[in-house]
UniProtKB/TrEMBL annotation:
A GO biological-process term: endoplasmic reticulum-plasma membrane tethering
Protein name per UniProt: GRM2A protein
Entry-linked Gene3D superfamilies: Pleckstrin-homology domain (PH domain)/Phosphotyrosine-binding domain (PTB) (2.30.29.30)
GO molecular function: phosphatidylinositol-4,5-bisphosphate binding
Coiled-coil blocks: none
Cellular compartments per GO CC: endoplasmic reticulum membrane; organelle membrane contact site
Domain GRAM: 1-68
Highest taxon in the source lineage: Eukaryota
SMART domains named in the record: GRAM
PANTHER family: GRAM DOMAIN-CONTAINING PROTEIN 2A
Organism: Ceuthmochares aereus
Length: 131
């Protein structure tokens, strides 16, 4: 219910699959929570009394890549959308379990390496149109 109080535009029938504590990497790290549902990735934080919300439709996700914080700690995920926006979530306690949930939710992506998911390639030629 807290999910729907925070994100009023998300339909009430949308159920949360996973909630995890993490930080959004910007100029500073913004500590908050990532909510994963079948159609939305939502991040919420309250920084100095100001609400910070990021809402990413699952269908807009083009790439999910495992990320190392400071090139050392394997605790982050980088998510790129079709609008070329990149979000880096770090300080994930269990990055691999979050990655697995995202892999199940983002069915339009395929495993492209051990560390990333990307858009599926077209497997068949589009039908030719005769003139």
């Amino acid at each position: 219910s807290q999910y729907h109080k925070l994100f009023k535009d998300i339909p009430t029938e949308e159920s949360v699959l996973k909630v995890c504590s993490c930080a959004l990497q910007r100029d500073i790290l913004i500590q908050g929570r990532l909510y994963i549902s079948p159609n939305w990735l939502c991040f919420y934080a309250n920084l100095f009394g100001k609400d910070i919300k990021v809402v990413i439709p699952v269908v807009s996700v083009q790439l999910i890549k495992k990320h190392k914080t400071a090139r050392l700690l394997p605790n982050g995920l980088a998510i790129t959308t079709n609008a070329s926006r990149k979000y880096i979530f770090v300080s994930l306690i269990s990055r691999d379990s979050v990655y697995d949930v995202l892999r199940r939710v983002c069915t339009h992506l395929q495993v492209s390496s051990k560390k990333s998911l990307s858009l599926k390639e077209l497997t068949e030629e589009p039908d030719a149109v005769s003139l």
